[in-house]
Design a protein that fits this description.
Family: Belongs to the metallophosphoesterase superfamily. YfcE family.
Helix content: 25-40%
CATH topology: Purple Acid Phosphatase, chain A, domain 2
Structural class: alpha/beta
Number of domains: 1
Radius of gyration: 17 Å
InterPro entries: Ap4A_hydrolase, Calcineurin-like_PHP_lpxH, Metallo-depent_PP-like, Pesterase_MJ0912
Protein name: Metallophosphoesterase family protein
Distance between the termini: 33 Å
Strand content: 15-25%
Pfam families: Metallophos_2
CATH architecture: 4-Layer Sandwich
Order of helices and strands: EHEHEHHHEEHEEEEEEEHH
Length: 247
Amino acid sequence: MKIALITDIHANAQAFSAVLEHAQTQGVTDYALLGDFVGYGGDPGWVLDKVRELVSRGAVAVLGNHDAAVAKGEAPTMRDEAQAAVVWTHARLSTEQLAFLAQLPLSITVEDRLFVHANGFDPGGWAYVQGRLEAMRSLHATSCRFTFCGHMHEPMLYHLSGTGKAGEFTPTPGVTIPLLPNRQWLVIPGSCGQPRDGNPAACYAIFDAVSGNLNFQRVPYDVEGAAASIRAAGLPERLAERLLTGQ
């Protein structure tokens, strides 16, 4: 069973479409959607309808902080450009789409796998896993062998040994990583719709639940088209510009 780990789509239809097409060529059978489906981008309705379709076919989906803000119609702690996108998005989603966002869980556990947007120690507090310390807190908070989370827009991999020793690894796209059985693992696939590591290509990862192997992926997509969608919506120019630079 190969699971596509996709997070932080941020209403980017072009990136999400490209990632889904790529996943089909890789033999993916299942999908885990790790939150922040909306916010920033210009196509929230299309993205949400695709997410709902995948969920109806058995995909896992959890709530992100932008999803929560849009469902409630408020984002007082977000930056101005993010707040503008939240307000704009809320006004353009249907009652059914908003209800779908509102009912998403903060986390889902399937066998030895924890799926969550922000972290394992306080999913609703939206704290970032910015380094080894937060990764250790997250891994100590669960008995699951694997934690898959988003929120951070850069791909990263952390592990915790049975003796409590922690490690971190910046992955290389396309290189198979065996997730050894004597460790706990925390996987951050990176952002599908708004990467921030200097590479505009969409991020996602593929986890083979049978072999335990993990592959991080980068998928080029129509970045100019996604930026044009943001501009056509009248959203802040900064949201379009950062797609072009991957920042």
